[in-house]
């Protein structure tokens, strides 16, 4: 039985071809994925908390919009983390260069914008 035949159908579909990478690299990729999932869950929890307890912070319509945006950011981070995990794992299997991190610049920009909004709210 070949190495590819010993893998499940799901593994063959998610990660076609290539050879098994060093487990340390696979596990490091998985830890990074889980860290991004933790970040996504924090965004989703913040959006829910803002909607549930943010009555005095914003007008109700604005509060709902901000809550939905924060939850949507969490969803985007989770989906992007899954896609990144797969791209990195495929690169490891093919001994190819790792893909550039597309999510990091977007998250950094979002963090700067959010900090600016918080500063503006505190100063006004």
TrEMBL record:
Keyword Transmembrane helix attributed: yes
InterPro entries assigned: DUF202, IM_YidH-like
Cell location: Cell membrane
GO cellular-component term (any): plasma membrane
Parts of the chain that traverse the membrane: 33-53, 65-83, 103-123
Membrane topology type: Multi-pass membrane protein
Key words of the record: Cell membrane, Membrane, Transmembrane, Transmembrane helix
Sequence ranges assigned to domain DUF202 in this UniProt record: 24-90
PANTHER family, alphabetized: DUF202 DOMAIN-CONTAINING PROTEIN, FGR18P
Name the record gives this protein: DUF202 domain-containing protein
Native source species: Aeromicrobium camelliae
């Amino acid at each position: 039985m070949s190495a590819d035949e010993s893998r499940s159908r799901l593994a063959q579909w998610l990660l076609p071809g290539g050879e098994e990478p060093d487990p340390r690299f696979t596990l490091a990729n998985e830890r990074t994925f889980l860290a991004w999932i933790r970040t996504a869950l924090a965004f989703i929890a913040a959006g829910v908390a803002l909607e549930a307890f943010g009555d005095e912070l914003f007008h109700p319509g604005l509060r709902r919009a901000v809550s939905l945006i924060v939850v949507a950011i969490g969803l985007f981070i989770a989906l992007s983390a899954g896609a990144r995990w797969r791209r990195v794992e495929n690169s490891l299997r093919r001994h190819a260069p790792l893909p550039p991190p597309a999510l990091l610049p977007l998250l950094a920009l979002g963090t700067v914008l959010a900090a600016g909004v918080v500063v503006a709210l505190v100063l006004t």
